[in-house]
């Protein structure tokens, strides 16, 4: 992990800061500050919330972590991940909040297209895609079908015509 950026600014990577950085890097989750605090407190009972927020600010300023809003699924809270992963997109289910990460050539191609089209040098790119995972799509379909079946029929609604069959 390139911590030289912090050292260059005169910031020491203390034991507590290292715990927080490791949690962000190694849990495989997108953690908000509160969840990060709870996990870190298990490793160091002396750690407090103020330390978490100050450390997150330092790590962001040092370029070691990114702050994400993930389509504001959880409200106004922010989530954190290290920059070690490389460029990727976050695919967020707007119903259950599941977050998947997408890596690959299509993102690099899009980046090149934007740079070429606008004559723009991209330094940082974040891509978030909101939608519904396959599980939530199935749930939504069932809910819509149930709602349609339970919907009251207005009295003056035209009645379906019934054809008499010739027997």
Concise synopsis of the structure shown:
By secondary structure, the protein is α+β, with helices and mostly antiparallel strands.
Question: Describe it for me?
Answer:
With 167 residues, this protein is an alpha+beta fold. The protein folds into 2 domains: 1-85, Winged helix-like DNA-binding domain superfamily/Winged helix DNA-binding domain (Arc Repressor Mutant, subunit A); 86-146, 2-Layer Sandwich (Dna Ligase, domain 1). It has 6 helices and 6 strands; from the N terminus they run H-H-E-H-H-E-E-E-E-H-E-H. A 3-stranded antiparallel sheet has the order 1-3-2. It has a 3-stranded mixed sheet with strand order 5-4-6, with no helix packed on it. Strand 4 (89-93) and strand 5 form a beta hairpin. The model has no long low-confidence stretch (mean pLDDT 86).
Q: Note poorly predicted spans.
A: none
| Category by helix and strand content | alpha+beta
- Side-by-side strand order of the widest sheet: 1-3-2
CATH homologous superfamily title of the largest domain: Winged helix-like DNA-binding domain superfamily/Winged helix DNA-binding domain
The CATH class assignment of the largest domain is: Mainly Alpha
Radius of gyration: 24 Å
Largest sheet: 3 strands, antiparallel
Portion of residues in beta strands equals 5-15%
Number of helices: 6
The structural domain count equals 2
Distance between the termini: 82 Å
CATH T-level topology of the largest domain: Arc Repressor Mutant, subunit A
